[in-house]
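Example for reference:
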Amino acid sequence: MRAGRVGLLILAALLGAPVASHAKPAREPLHFFARPSNGLALTPPVGWNSWNHFGCHVNAPLIAGNDLAQMSAATRAILTNREVIAVDQDRLGIEGHRAYKHGDGEIWVRPLSGGREAVVLLNRGARPLRTRLKWSELGLPGYLPLRLRDLWRHENLPLATRGVTFTVAPTSVIMLRETPVRPRASD
């Protein structure tokens, strides 16, 4: 893939343009940021922690552009989060798409193998943002119970129906994996 096309896809993703038509399983390297002449990577507009979560929705290998020997524990935790990496490397290989946008808040959804979905609640603003994740925004009926897992905190959230409200920190994300609860077969 040519560098110019890669740059346009990244720009399109940051601006919320559809890039799903370009998705395929992550086989070829895709470098998210061009290197300026001084050799430093450009910082994404939503910050590194947010970008690493958001990057999992644009279906490309995660690439570290930092000095591994000087990496802080916090940076290492971000880059080695197995649950986030599993979303990035999901074998289904379908691109995430923006399901909702209002002001600085966005909800991105990426189908995963096994009938699950990854969901990113993105706050592009400078203030905390209360965001309600409604099942209808996921294309699911409200009565369907969902199991949500916070992939950053490694926590299962209580079983929920219809929707859940979150507060997303400024210029940050909450990344979830949702799994519909399958009804048990009766005896």
Observations:
- The radius of gyration is 17 Å.
